[in-house]
TrEMBL record:
Transmembrane portions of the chain: 44-65
Keywords of the record: Membrane, Transmembrane, Transmembrane helix
Membrane is among the record's keywords: yes
Lineage: Bacteria, Bacillati, Bacillota, Bacilli, Bacillales
Descriptive protein name: DUF4367 domain-containing protein
Keyword Transmembrane helix: yes
Length: 316
């Protein structure tokens, strides 16, 4: 398991011929898919290959029959995992990325790489953009100390200094949602600005909301093993459903910790077994997804409750 990464390898995705054109690739670090208006939003956590495998699976039409659910005390589904082949949205395979579109994406990443941590903007690229698309770009806040992270996040969620097994906080990325409505945004103002200033691109700052979007933290033990702890806003996930690549090849089990249902996953690769736990809370009416993942042996079926209670001390 490596530390949480940002979009450093994502540029390669836009050159991969298996990517459906209808799928938007986000730079956020997480292997979760959000369904919204027949589109995908893929968030990265560990490996870009996961996203590529997902897209290939969607295109192949592979059928899986199993799914897993986490429910609250009322029996309502808070979280569901299905195989990616069960996604019902529209998609088509791109055999080769158009040269103009490739140049557009290269320019977009070049611009986004220049953003300072904790900044966001509406971006209009005047070149390689015949549809005159306006996008939102952002870079999360970055923290090397837990004190600074807690100060920025406030008391809404709890991020511990240590986790079971001797894992200590290393660093984190954090972002709230953005105040941006594509349909209502004044795109014409950006078009006119680019034309007047004769620039290849123009940006206008965007404001953050007070609603958590995600927090990705990395922990490390004395042996050099990494553990990723993520908290993500799960409010806007259609059907509370996450689509997973090759679900039938993963060993999963729903385990009860107090009143909370937790999904435990083991996935074997050539030289390691990745382990992950996921659960969803409904504090103050807001759904938050918690996730802990590592390749180490310290997260297993016998220690799940220790990790959950370390992150949510009030869990009963």
């Amino acid at each position: 398991m490596s530390p949480n990464k940002s979009h450093e390898n994502i540029k390669d995705l836009f050159n991969d011929p298996r990517i459906p054109q209808e799928i938007d690739i986000s730079h956020q670090v997480m292997t979760k898919i959000k369904r919204e208006k027949e589109r995908f939003f893929v968030k990265y956590k560990v490996s870009i290959l996961v996203a590529i495998g997902l897209i290939a699976s969607i295109s192949s039409g592979y059928a899986a029959v199993h799914y897993y659910q986490l429910k609250n005390e009322k029996g309502e589904v808070l979280y569901e995992e299905k195989d990616s082949s069960q996604y019902q949205g529209k998609s088509k395979t791109v055999k080769e990325l158009e040269p103009e579109k490739e140049k557009y994406y290269d320019k977009r990443w070049e611009i986004e790489d220049t953003l300072e941590p904790g900044t966001a903007a509406a971006l209009y690229i005047a070149v390689y953009n015949p549809k005159k698309t306006v996008e939102r770009v952002s870079r999360p806040f970055e923290f090397a100390t837990l004190t600074d992270l807690r100060k920025k996040m406030g008391e809404g969620v709890y991020v511990p200094e240590t986790l079971p097994g001797g894992y200590h906080f290393l660093d984190a990325r954090f972002a709230n949602g953005l105040q941006f409505d594509y349909e209502k945004y004044d795109k014409e103002a950006l078009y006119k600005q680019a034309e007047k200033e004769k620039k290849e691109f123009v940006m206008q700052p965007l404001e953050w909301t007070n609603e958590l979007d995600y927090m990705y933290a990395t922990y490390k033990d004395s042996e050099g093993s990494y553990l990723n702890f993520n908290i993500t806003n799960y409010e806007d996930v259609e059907g509370s459903t996450t689509y997973v690549v090759d679900l039938d090849k993963q060993k999963k089990e729903v385990i009860k910790v107090g009143k909370t249902e937790v999904l435990y996953t083991e996935e074997a690769s050539k030289d390691r077994v990745s382990k992950r736990i996921v659960w969803v809370t409904e504090d103050s009416g807001k759904k938050l997804q918690y996730e802990v993942s590592t390749d180490g042996d310290k997260l297993n079926k016998d220690t799940i409750s220790q990790f959950v209670n370390a992150v949510v001390p009030k869990n009963k």
